[in-house]
Amino acid sequence: MKLEPNQIASHNERLLSKHQQRLTFASQEVHNSDHILQQLSDFQIGIPSWALGTGGTRFGRFSLGGEPGNIEEKLEDIGLLHQLNASSAAVSLHIPWDTTTDVPAIKTLATQYGLHFDAMNSNTFQDQRDQQHSYKFGSLQHVNKEVRKQAITHNIEVIRQGVELGSKALTIWLADGSCFPGQLNFRKAFENTLESLQEIYTALPADWKVFVEYKAFEPNFYSTTVGDWGQSLLYANKLGPKAFTLVDLGHHLPNANIEQIVSLLLMEGKLGGFHFNDSKYGDDDLTAGCMKPYQLFLIFNELVEGMDQRGMNHKDDLAWMIDASHNVKDPLEDLLQSVEAIMIAYAQALSVDRIALVQAQQENDVVRCQEILQQAFRTDVRPLVAEARLRAGAALSPIALYRESEVRKELIRNRGNQTIATGL
Amino acid sequence: MKLEPNQIASHNERLLSKHQQRLTFASQEVHNSDHILQQLSDFQIGIPSWALGTGGTRFGRFSLGGEPGNIEEKLEDIGLLHQLNASSAAVSLHIPWDTTTDVPAIKTLATQYGLHFDAMNSNTFQDQRDQQHSYKFGSLQHVNKEVRKQAITHNIEVIRQGVELGSKALTIWLADGSCFPGQLNFRKAFENTLESLQEIYTALPADWKVFVEYKAFEPNFYSTTVGDWGQSLLYANKLGPKAFTLVDLGHHLPNANIEQIVSLLLMEGKLGGFHFNDSKYGDDDLTAGCMKPYQLFLIFNELVEGMDQRGMNHKDDLAWMIDASHNVKDPLEDLLQSVEAIMIAYAQALSVDRIALVQAQQENDVVRCQEILQQAFRTDVRPLVAEARLRAGAALSPIALYRESEVRKELIRNRGNQTIATGL
Amino acid sequence: MKLEPNQIASHNERLLSKHQQRLTFASQEVHNSDHILQQLSDFQIGIPSWALGTGGTRFGRFSLGGEPGNIEEKLEDIGLLHQLNASSAAVSLHIPWDTTTDVPAIKTLATQYGLHFDAMNSNTFQDQRDQQHSYKFGSLQHVNKEVRKQAITHNIEVIRQGVELGSKALTIWLADGSCFPGQLNFRKAFENTLESLQEIYTALPADWKVFVEYKAFEPNFYSTTVGDWGQSLLYANKLGPKAFTLVDLGHHLPNANIEQIVSLLLMEGKLGGFHFNDSKYGDDDLTAGCMKPYQLFLIFNELVEGMDQRGMNHKDDLAWMIDASHNVKDPLEDLLQSVEAIMIAYAQALSVDRIALVQAQQENDVVRCQEILQQAFRTDVRPLVAEARLRAGAALSPIALYRESEVRKELIRNRGNQTIATGL
Amino acid sequence: MKLEPNQIASHNERLLSKHQQRLTFASQEVHNSDHILQQLSDFQIGIPSWALGTGGTRFGRFSLGGEPGNIEEKLEDIGLLHQLNASSAAVSLHIPWDTTTDVPAIKTLATQYGLHFDAMNSNTFQDQRDQQHSYKFGSLQHVNKEVRKQAITHNIEVIRQGVELGSKALTIWLADGSCFPGQLNFRKAFENTLESLQEIYTALPADWKVFVEYKAFEPNFYSTTVGDWGQSLLYANKLGPKAFTLVDLGHHLPNANIEQIVSLLLMEGKLGGFHFNDSKYGDDDLTAGCMKPYQLFLIFNELVEGMDQRGMNHKDDLAWMIDASHNVKDPLEDLLQSVEAIMIAYAQALSVDRIALVQAQQENDVVRCQEILQQAFRTDVRPLVAEARLRAGAALSPIALYRESEVRKELIRNRGNQTIATGL
User: Which residue among C247, C308, C329, D228 has its CA within the 20 to 30 Å range from the CA of D213?
Assistant: First the structure.
């Protein structure tokens, strides 16, 4: 489904006068609104192909209907999101769920929607039909070299598919680990994993990156072989200059200071990208910013400061992606909410008075430091985010337009009520 | 599959002399070995019907083969466990997974295996085929009275089936809750749930109990409507004398002092039963005692002290059940390990020198208090647990005999490699 | 130190025009700004006498200078805060630190500052010079009746002093608990504590309340005898209608859903009051709203909804207090930041579109529920909070005026650099 | 106070026959008892000078009496511990608390007690009298170079004192960090700290090591500048071959897998030493093994495996120290309990059937892996630990002898009831 240009136009027209009034006010409240608007326009967040259908837990899944059943439909959905918010120009595919036999057609389709292919994702945490060896006891870490080889081969195949599609990065999330004390030798698991990663690394094209994602726990419940940023960084350093750490906000132990990790990874030149989501207990994979919006802002505060300090390009030098599971919301609405929350946090971080902050830090004026950050966070920058959309031809209020247009109804009509998005 | 009596006998014979030597020593180390042996013989732990197959996570499941495909096969498996350890005489069924059309046959079968039916479990956390209303947004808490009614009716049906089978209790675990702030009104959710529980309570036979299980999170990731012991106790108190709280060891926030909760629930006369398992991060559902065996001992220490103080019968006055998920182990071996760990913890708790402990507590002699508990925990009581099995005609080393007898191989031969236990 | 009226006036004058512009905008953004302004004007937050000096940890304390050395100076400091924000009209005293020999003088002084006496706090977590029995092993829980008696007597003495001063409530925070498994019998500790509380309860005047505060851990590191809301509620229910639970935001296990606890305590008619602060790891006692401002808003969202539903008076029916430790900030500035954050969260909660929220909840429109709450939270209500201050004759920007007036410098000049506020 | 040799002899004589019976049994249960006995005899655990007095929290401290008031008395106390258990031959000093003006006398005294000097500890988390700059806002991280310089100078002075005493290592625990978002720039704090550490590193003698201790939180409650093992390893790698990471068991986020961290640090050749203690909530500094004895065993399991694999010497190649706070126990008894728990865990780890474990891991026989570890943990090795003491001329039951000898009474008689151990 695709919106007609005039649908967006008439939607915007209705909201325009109120929007402009708010924009005027917001532009006065923020010292650098032009800069923020420019940065917001450039910023694009990758949508994971697996997040377009209803998610679930081990206890069950409650489908919504109209879910995309193949890669073409997934592109269609993301295309629609991008029409609505002009901030979702990238697609993150998952192999084998999204393997296509007709690459040129898929590339053409993506181009029509204004989309490009962000990091490719391999899958060695599930057994596929006709797979020779099982990943029940790990993949790249496995004690059996044959199993490792199979997993390596799969990752190289994912790179191959990515090259054809024009992607430039491979994200490796490993479920590898153990459920019980004694089950594996931590050191050997690390060494096996490193050796496997090195083989994959060797297969990377010159202009590619590989992201080593870490996660504290789940689906293994005792140890994870890439369990925290320290371990991921060890791998990335041993692999070489094309290897980076990927941070997923839900992959930490309780109370972790993620923004500090972000800052240090940037310092080391080893931050590769992000999986945005939010959580209260574990890897809850909830909508970005729904639970701890101040933390999201603080993370962006470090990102902006650290990237600027290194002269990095906000848009391209890190991979920005959502990774979420939509168990009780319409996935497309959920993704719109996530993108909105991310853009707000980014805009707020851009609005921080950095000169004043550096000075207050230099004076250990803790009260003032807090005032400066809170000033940025408490200011309502939504009009700036909306204006960036407006200028890009997208909707002032994406969810409102999505609902007015009865998109879900239409998708169910086209795809049926019982479809299940491929994947989990 | 069933073991021949002589299989057990010849297994025991081989181990007997070493066992007796150990038993002699253990009996000297513990001041009340006869009492412990008696208590261990009586103690029986319910096996959940859903834990006989390989478990999984939202990321996947790696089957083992030979899993029971129906209630008859589940009883067969539990019968085998009980042959091996003489401590698994109870079955906890789950409806609708275990609904049977031939109750008398099932009862006869259970009797043949020496099994009886422990608490029945209802399921309103999944949608069953042909179910009119969805539980996507809760069941007993649902804003729509029709949905609540459907869930109530299901629970009453579970009671009906339980009555036929000779069960005496209903366990209600509710996934009800919310994933996002604002999604529901906590108070109304509580009130709806209470009202629903009251209707179910009314349908309880006079000699039945209902257990209200609590859980901190998962599958809902913001709030759970029976989220902690305090909430469960509120429900139980408002319901009446047949309502009790059920404690699952994995259902708490990080660092919770579960043994204190146990003690206070006993004090209030409202502890109903247990779901044993172990965990490191959340509701990991690992083998009992595999991660924090000292905690398991401390819990039993409170149970023994608290039950004795109230004159309760260890065997019958609480419902003792395992609730676990066997993702990387043979489920039957895992259950044997769990039962062994539980029996060890129970034996250690029974061996605590209570007179000395009370005196040390009275004197605030904290060092001595710790010495007394550690003395019980550090003493190797496994020979007592083995002796209790021996006296009951079970195996000195259940897992060894299970493996010698090549049970899994036989189950796969009989049931096939691709069977999936009904349930999750 | 006291500000001259014209200091405030000239401060406000400079900021007025900008303020009015913002106020106009904010009043348009919020549907009920008049109501909010009225509520904000009424709302008063108690300042704890022990938070006026620099706090510390077991590792040390870094004093600031100019700290109040007696109750007169503490009242002076709070009077100043109240001049600045018109929202700190209440004082929460701590006995014996704030025991006075001249009650009439203190009452007169308080009246001059526009202050009244909020809940009184007893102290049985420290040994005072000349105290007969030690609280090393607890106070109201102690195995020795003589120790309990001493602690009961102290609490009754605190009530007596409170009556003289015009306070209407006693807050009991107990450090009682244990550091090691086995150290105490949980049930007996509960029973002793209950018995002790009952004696104190008996001594309460008819128009007094007693607040039973709970805390998960610290200074005891294994168990706490009033460890969570469930335990506190048990005590409160057993004590009677004048006993209530007091919630301190930092007194929970990781990831606890505090807003749900608040809602249920209101439902039970047993929420008595609040200790505001913020934290990342434990009872960090940081500035309210500095870490998780959305959580603070969600808590106020439940407070407003729950109080309104019960017809409670926002201002008087709960005790609103700060409890914080100012280790690296000027305590007075820190308190101003806390009050500001609390007022913002309260204003945002008041601005929630409740009719729409109820409807969205009724339809399980989770996306909409989230939008409604985020709309309230993302709106910048600071102009409303400032306006409430302005109308009450306080400062538009309290911290700015505090700094312009060089208050700390003056306090150091008057009181010296080495003064230590009585207390911890 | 010092025990007479015949006191120990007569104590042992009374317990000998029972002990020998137990030893005989334990030696049969364990396949390598001779090896274990040898290793236990060699193993020595450093006692921190600051743990000889009663500890406290920010809420207070309850003294015991008879606490050592100077370094001579501290050595006396540790000498006594070493007489009792023959496993406490090392002292870990803290400067400036233990600065001595008469080094030769102190060295002679230590030698008389059979003690040597383990890692020296610097203190830049408190302000000392007459100190020019405050550490309120950090030391090695401080924005002001003068403050950093002062802290560097202090560390170099600690090395100097250590060299005189014969120590070979410096432990740097930094409280540096921040309490509020925005307070510091994480990257600059890291860089300042690194630069400072490099200056200290340069001052290290050739045969010295420096240990960089990490801690998740407290006394700073937002960020810590050496916050986790990943950060510590970054510093250690950047510093050079004499820099190592030091692990304190209480310095992690909830649920951290410490044994995996230990294994990986050993793999990297960067594990330097240990601070043993136990905890339930945070850095509770409780007696080693009092809360999670299985975790302690699992850590030793990794230590033994990893050290053996690298050909490391158990006794000397890592620094083994206790770091605890004795709030409710007699510190000397508490230390005896800690050492006992550590020796038990070490003995159990030594008894693990490594050949069988490697094979089971190679076969992914998870059940067997668990059985092997649990076999080691459930076996009662206390007789081996006692025998190692006996052979070294120490007491079979150290705490019993300590109590029989009425040591505390004597210490109070000699030192008085109101003495306070220097330090916290």
Answer: C329
pLDDT at D364 (0 to 100): 98
pLDDT digit string, tens, across residues B242-256: 999 999 999 999 999
Helix ranges restricted to H, D135-185: 145-165
Q: Complex ipTM above 0.90?
A: yes
Query: Residue A159: inside a domain, yes or no?
Result: yes
CA end-to-end distance (rounded Å), chain A: 24
Q: What residue has token string 């009671």?
A: B159
Looking at C240-365, list the stretches that DSSP marks H as alpha helix, in order from N- to C-terminal side. 258-267, 293-309, 331-351, 354-362
A379 within some domain:
no
Angstrom distances, CA of residue C306 to CA of C263, C268, C317, D50 = 6, 11, 12, 50
Distance from CA of D138 to the nearest CA of A (A): 10
Contact status, residue B271 vs residue B243, Cβ threshold 8 Å = no
pLDDT in tens, B269-325: 999 999 999 999 999 999 999 999 999 999 999 999 999 999 999 999 999 999 999
Nearest to C175 by CA among C221, C129, C210: C221
Angle, in degrees to the nearest 10, between helices A382-391 and A331-350: 110
Count of CB atoms situated within 10 Å of the CB of C107: 17
CA distance B281 to B250: 9
Residue B19 resides in a domain? no
CB B182 within 8 A of CB C256: no
Q: How far apart are CA C223 and CA B361, in angstroms?
A: 14
Give first-to-last CA distance, chain C, whole Å.
Answer: 24
- D177 HSE (CA, 13 A, CB side): 24
Interface of D with B in 269-328 (CB under 8 A): 280-281, 287, 290-295, 328
Q: Which residues of chain B are within 8 Å of residue A284 when distances are taken between CB atoms?
A: 179, 221
- For the beta carbon of residue D156, count every other beta carbon within 10 angstroms: 16
d(CA B251, CA C253): 13
Q: Do B136 and A62 touch (CB under 8 A)?
A: yes
Q: Measured between alpha carbons, how far is A208 from A169 in angstroms, rounded to an integer?
A: 5
CA distance linking residue C293 with residue C378, whole number of Å:
11
* Distance separating alpha carbons of residues A311 and A413, to the nearest angstrom: 49
Cβ B309–C187 below 8 Å, yes or no?
Answer: yes
- B-chain CB neighbours of A57 within 8 Å are 58, 218-219
Chain centroid to CA B216: 18
Residue ranges making up the domain that contains B174: 44-352
Asked if residues D386 and D398 have their Cβ atoms less than 8 Å apart, the reply is no
* Distance (Å, whole) CA B325 – CA B53: 8
User: Which DSSP symbol is given to B211?
Assistant: E
Please, is B202 exposed, middle or buried when counting C-beta atoms within 10 Å of its C-beta (0-12, 13-18, 19+)?
A: exposed
SS3 A135: coil
CATH number at residue B121: 3.20.20.150
Amino acid identity, residue A217? F
8 Å CB contact between A176 and A139: yes
The reply to whether A82 falls in a domain is: yes
Instruction: Give me the sign of the Cα torsion angle C230, C235, C240, C244.
Output: negative
Query: Which positions in chain C touch B230 (Cβ < 8 Å)?
Result: 228-231, 233
pLDDT tens digit string along D22-54? 999 999 999 999 999 999 999 999 999 999 999
**Interchain contact, B223 vs C186, CB within 8 Å:** no
d(CA C341, CA A375): 12
- Spatial CA neighbour of A2 closest among A87, A114, A79: A79
Q: Looking at this protein, which amino acid is placed at residue B29?
A: E
Rounded to two decimals, what is the model's pTM?
Answer: 0.98
Can you tell me whether residue C82 is helix, strand or coil? helix
Report the domain count for chain B: 1
- pLDDT confidence of C421, banded at 50, 70, 90? low
A256 touches chain B (CB under 8 A): no
